[in-house]
Structures are given as C-alpha cells and as structure tokens.
Amino acid sequence: MDVLGPAPLLVASDVDGTLVDDDERISLRTHVALNAVQASGGHFVLATGRPPRAVDPIAAQLDFAPLAVCANGAVLYDTATSQVVSASLMSPELLDTVAELIRRYLPGAGFAAERVARGEHDSATPRFAASTGYQHAWLEPDTVAAADAEVLAHPAVKLLVRQPGMTSDEMSARIVPHLDGVADVTYATNNGLIEFHVPGVTKATGIRAAMEHLGLAADVRTAAFGDMPNDSEMLRWAGVGVAMANAHPVALDAANLVTATNLDDGVARVLERWF
Asked: Is the keyword Hydrolase in the record (predicted)?
C-alpha cells in the first residue's frame, strides 16, 4: 500500500457532510466500498452527532448492521438490535450548571435535551425535549416542548443550545473560556448550534468503546472520516484521519489526509485504495 499504509481493521465515518449526500443518501460507489471493508474481515462503524433514532435510516441503506457511535460519542448503539449498548449521561445537576453558564454568556439562547433509553424505540420515553425559546436547526418530529426546568430535569446524553444570529464558532468562542472543565462543547454545524456533553466524551472515546464491544485490540489499525469540529478528536486519534474537502478548518487541521467532498464520493475514493 502507498503512503496510507496497510488497510485498517476498523473504519469509522461521520454521517452528515461526510458519508451521505445532501439528500442523506449513501452513493452506490460508497455502498460498494463499505461492503468491501466488511468482505475483507474489517469493521465499519458509524460515528455521528445524530441520536440513535436518526441513525436507523442511514444504517438501513447498508447491507449490514453496523455499530453506531451516536451523540458525538455519548451513546454506543447497535443498529442490528435497536438497543443502546452504553451511554454517558449528563446529570440534571450538570445540565443546570451548564444552563446557568449559557444564560450568563449566551443570553436568549434556547435549550434542548437529547435523551435515550435502553430500547431506542421505547415510545414511553421522550427523546427530545426543547424549551419554547429553542429554534430547531433541522426537522425534529419527536420534540416535546417544555419549560427550561423540565428540559433540564432528566439525564441527557447531550444538551443542545441554539442561538440564531450567531455562528457556532462564535458561540463556542464565547462560552468555552468559562466552562472550566465542567462539560465539553462541540458542534456539527456552524449555524448557531452547539452541543454539550459529559467531560471527556468524544467520538474517539465512543469508537474505543465500539472496539471493545467488538473484541478488537486497542492497537489495531484504524481510519476515520469527518468534516466538522465534532470529528476532530476522532481524526487525531485514528491511525489515518481523513477530512473531506468540504470540511471545517478545525477538522482539516486535525486530519493527516484530505479527500474529495461528500458529494464526490470522498470516503469511497480513499477506501478503494485499501480494499
């Protein structure tokens, strides 16, 4: 193999802006490349900011059921069984603490909490609770509207904060100096939406949990694909970190290789050189 080195045993990919096109479809070329990973004895893992319920339509396009690292590393989800394997939860106390910082440094922002249950399709558990001031960045049909106190009252895998009129870069720059390790913040869009997690939770930690679940040694060869700041830790951690040509500068800086855009089969173009 060329400068990429030997083929990885585990390949992880972000979804939006990386694996799928603007219609959330996996191209035929990428589909074939992912099948080649599996046929070689390798493992493919989805690694996304999406919650489990939003991963199912992506996994359904594949010929196999991958593990999915969801909510930026906070959730490990088995798409074969629709079961949450593990989750790192923000306590109500932590949610309250972060909310107070948001009110102070991002006044007027709206909150939303992403929650999970062991069985992801257990309809008795509200998945997405949003305050009345929260303006959705995308269609979220499962939303339960609630007062701030209710949004913050139950454990969540992430707290989403929306501030239209600001970029996510601007929001992050304003709040990060005041977090003092209380929580970590990242984002998958620059449209005024940032997401908070338990400290230390990233897509990289989620992939390590997936590897353990798969019985893989910690030192196996790995590759990861991504395009946004929430991919940066994963790109740095992987043996080969690949950023898309359409990536945010933070992701580009974290990668050691740049491929074509998500609309030009960027993931497949690299995988075809290995498999």
From this structure: yes
